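Summary of Year 1 activities. Much of the first year was spent building the evaluation harness for sequence design. The harness presents a backbone, in tokenized form, and records the residue chosen at every position. We chose the following record to illustrate the format because it has been used consistently in internal testing since the harness was completed.
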């Protein structure tokens, strides 16, 4: 089995499980995104902090010149601390609390992505009480499905996200009457782990329809935020360690009709950080079950919940062994039957103490870790 290049001799004294980040790969990824963006002067990237808010990664991403897309006051605070310019920080989410709105206004963030009429009025009131004007975009539910897992599709009318596009005109008109919000543009997002560029083309077509409609009604469009969602190849981390940013931006370039000079904002998370992270675990026991052999490792759904929550695939590699492959169910120690990383999975024969890497875990891994069963939160180590 082809494996990633991990310095396991340096792992010997470390307490497992831990996240291991390849900062060289992150740096090459950031360079590639920057190179792509330099060809489109109106395109701006706001890294989706929810994918991974590890301070070391955030600082590198901030230093590369990107803005930040945040979904809580805590994320806004982490972004400011990591060095993102407040004016490049956007704040989204269906349920912003008064305290979070006040905090973000105080910091002077660049944009509130507003998801309902009720929220718009609250932001106006809070901004008035602080003597400020809040820059807002309206998040529109484009009613477009992405070919991805049902739990991470967000752009359908049945989802809780965004304003239905049939009431958009009324809400923009209302927004223009408010004194403490400034209407700046439209925000969209259709889902995550999208590999089929035709989903993004469909989003562009829907945005084109909506902006044409607003123009017919002599309403302002402002700038466009297309959200995030670009997927990565979870199956081949050793061959394809970078998302296809070129095709992604080319799709928007080809299908999104905006006037020259209109800023277009992107909010990628997964594609920027997923490939650079692995969860490193040790094999605790190899157990013969009635039907199958279990490799019981010390990492679990508390460090990486994606397999348990979404049945997500992550490649699993035995870094210590070079013996012929055997078939295992790779499971963690948590008291839930869903605490499984891989079923009927072939990998090099496992022994107690072997190091196991669970690959492509840099996005929605550490960020979604919990302390269930009173496990300690995982530590992180970095390879420069
Ligand atoms: N913008 C908005 C409004 C979002 O809701 C999201 C992700 C993003 C941007 C970034 O999307 P990305 O480029 O990372 O796909 N925990 C799930 C993914 C949840 C995504 C939520 N929203 C997972 O582990 O697959």
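For this record, the design step produced the sequence shown next.
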């Amino acid at each position: 089995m082809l494996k990633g290049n991990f310095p396991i001799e340096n792992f010997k004294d470390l307490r497992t499980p831990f996240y291991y980040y390849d900062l060289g790969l992150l740096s090459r990824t950031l360079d590639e995104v920057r190179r792509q963006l330099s060809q489109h002067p109106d395109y701006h990237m706001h890294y989706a902090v929810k994918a991974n808010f590890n301070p070391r990664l955030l600082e590198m991403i901030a230093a590369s010149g990107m803005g930040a897309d945040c979904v809580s006051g805590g994320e806004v605070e982490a972004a400011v601390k990591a060095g993102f310019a407040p004016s490049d920080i956007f704040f989204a989410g269906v349920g912003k609390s008064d305290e979070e709105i006040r905090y973000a206004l105080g910091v002077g963030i660049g944009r509130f992505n507003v998801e309902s009429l009720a929220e718009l009025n609250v932001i106006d009131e809070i901004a008035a009480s602080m003597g400020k004007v809040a820059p807002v975009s309206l998040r529109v539910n484009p009613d477009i499905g992405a070919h991805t897992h049902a739990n991470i599709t967000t752009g359908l009318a049945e989802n809780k996200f965004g304003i239905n596009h049939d009431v958009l005109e009324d809400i923009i008109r209302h927004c223009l009457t408010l004194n403490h919000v400034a209407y700046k543009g439209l925000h969209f997002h259709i889902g995550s782990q999208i590999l089929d560029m035709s989903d993004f083309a469909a989003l562009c077509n829907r945005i084109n329809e909506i902006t044409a409609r607003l123009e017919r009604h002599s309403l302002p469009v402002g700038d466009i935020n297309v959200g995030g969602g670009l997927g990565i190849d979870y199956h081949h981390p050793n061959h394809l360690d970078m998302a296809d940013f070129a095709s992604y931006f080319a799709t928007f370039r080809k299908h999104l009709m905006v006037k020259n000079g209109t800023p277009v904002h992107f909010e990628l998370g997964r594609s920027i950080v997923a490939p650079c992270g692995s969860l490193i675990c040790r094999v605790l026991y190899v157990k013969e079950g009635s039907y199958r052999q279990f490799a019981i490792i010390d990492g679990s759904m508390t460090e990486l919940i994606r397999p348990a929550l979404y049945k997500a695939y992550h490649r699993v590699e035995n870094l210590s062994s070079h013996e012929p492959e055997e078939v295992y169910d790779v499971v963690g120690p948590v008291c839930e039957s869903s605490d499984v990383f891989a079923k009927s999975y072939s990998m090099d024969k496992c022994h107690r103490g072997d190091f196991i890497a669970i690959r492509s875990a840099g996005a929605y891994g550490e960020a979604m870790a919990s302390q269930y069963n009173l496990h300690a939160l995982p530590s992180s180590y970095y390879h420069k």
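The first helix runs from residue 23 to 38. Quantitative recovery figures across the full test set are reported in Table 2.
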